[in-house]
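User: two proteins, same treatment. go.

Assistant:
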Amino acid sequence: MTIVTTGCSGIVSPNNYSIVDKVPINNKQNLYKLKIGVVPTENLIEQERMIKPLKEYLEQSFGGGDKIDPQLKTIGRQTRQNTEGIQKKQNAIAISLDFQIGKSYQQIIDLLVQDKLDMAYLGPVSYLEAVDRGAKIEPLVAAIDKHTGEPWYRACIIVKQDSPIKTLKDLKGKRIAFVDKLSTSGYLMPLATFKKLEIDYKRDFSQVIYTGSHSKSLAALEDGIVDASATNISSYLKRQKIGKLTPQNYRLVWQSAPILNFPIVVSKKLPPELIQQLKQAFLSSPEGLEDILGIESAGYTLVTPSDYAAIEQFRKDLNLISVPTK
């Protein structure tokens, strides 16, 4: 199976913000209030639920390890690569996090371009789009899937079990749901495969809808609004956990090669010591925290812009790169 990225750079965890406000606490510690944007992948209530433990962990991990809830700690973690050079500076910095779930992928990109966010959870395509438009950001880390042990996820197209659709070419003349034109698994990767098969999504489908999130795309399939839904395996499995889209009633008609997970990005205007501590916090995160994509993480791995070069090439091949905003 071809891998869509050449691999992650840097350090892998064992089991990654311009400053909006900085409030002195005492001579030894500063409190940074950071605004974090999140692209909408699930419904609002579900994403808020996933954010809560991550927010608590990150805030508690700053200002001293003794403040971390014992239930968030793990024992006997091992790193895949040497973590030399990243030193945790306890009691030097504290953070307060304000998460904002976007109404759309575009809204979070706009806020980054306007320098109104310090950090963001972005899909690979939305990260590249933000950079194209001039956002001064850098990718920090991506989550490692607890069940595969790798920082990958896969795009897929799902149909009902009794659907006559057996191959992607059978989608011609049918109704399909995409997530967003800035979604990697819910738009870019299916389009790249359609191009190889000479399927024109603007001409060959009877209806194309954009739902705005993976959960809404899957709901559209359940409700019979569309005949097929473009999403990712993680969202599909997550839906199964709540009794929806069971294997008895739904099936995959296609899945992509692995895609490097959603990058967590930070503003380049952040102090270097704060970025280092953020890296350390993510690399030391406990196993089982849910990533924004919905997977149970086994920690995080450092990523660099070059890790998303393959996705950038797909965007070029499909003429999907926007003209930078002046």
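Protein 2:
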Amino acid sequence: MALLGVVVFWAMHVAFTRQLDATVADEVQTLVAEYRSDGGSELADAIAQRELSRSPGRLLYAVFAPNGRRIYGSLKTSRPSLGVHDIAFNDPSEGADAARALAIDLSPNERLVVAADREWIEQIDQTILIVFAMGFLAVCLLGFAGALLFGSYLQRRLRSISDGAVAIIGGDIRGRMPVGPRQDEFDQLAITLNRMLERIEGLLKNLRQVSTDIAHDLRSPLTRLRNRLEQGSSATETQNCQPLIEEAITRVDDVLALFSSILRLSEVESGETRRFFAPVDLSALAHDLFESYAPPIRDSGRTLISSIEPHVTIAGDRELIGQACANLLENAQLHTPPGTIIRLSLVAAGQHVCLQVNDNGPGVGKADRGRMIERFKRLDASRNTPGHGLGLSLANAVAALHGGRLLFRDSQPGLSATFEFPASTPGRLSHSDAPE
């Protein structure tokens, strides 16, 4: 506001001064023309007539001799030099005053001076200064009041978020940030923080569940291992201890495999492996899986068939996708009766790429399908089969890592497990015409 006031004041002051100079210059040209046409006596009469005028914007006149003596005219000032000047003169009503003057030589013995009182410019300057001073004061007051109101609003909103955070730090993880009806930036921030808190709460619940499940799953094998070691400690012959030692090693391997699966699942869910994504020929991967699993599935009394679309490529982690699909094939083999037909298929159509394992076995009830991807969750039908209930959790995490999802559907009969990925998102699954 202050800078604007300086600029406007200076611009208006210069404009009015130039206007005053132009008025004085026009008057000088008129008087010079009269002097040259009618002589000095007519110039004196013209000046006298002009000085009789009572108009507010009247000009001041004088003609000076070389020695500084005023020949005619009423302007009381010293003989100025040639050109445009700010001069001081004696105003009969106000005393010493300032004027804007133009001096020009009519002849070697006569110098004409026409001046305009600067009083009206000074009044305009004073008016501008007063107006801008009042405006500047008003802006300062409004700015100060606005700053107080805005600061109070910011403090109130931030305090509400801070109080919510303090409550959460105190242990109330179910607390949430307050969201107002205005849906302003603070409300949007509160919504985002609430989503983060919901995610954290879900992770904590998952952590508690995992801790409980790990303790539950480890209790039985460790208890059996301890019992067998106690039996071995009471054995007297070396040959009697050897089977016990081998069984103990097997049970320890099971525990180590459980922890390895947990660590692998945590690594996938953290998203750290995404930086190692590279183009993967999904069709070739599906063919490798089919060739690897067809013989053991056939030996178990089941049949594995394939329907694989060629030249489907993805950007991802080949090892993770292969392990996830292998988990689906192993589940289909373990949880279906002999004579079941298992199909491995790959298709890219529209906006999705689907890698699917389905069978015509007994299937899974609709109520149990959503529970299949939970950690350590094992359905009643599979409790007597080996495993820890982490295979489908890992498969679901791999699907989410690649921007997709793992879906379970009823095949009527049987179960269909499908990896569904968006084909159009860069860096995720896509269908391209790879060279043969």
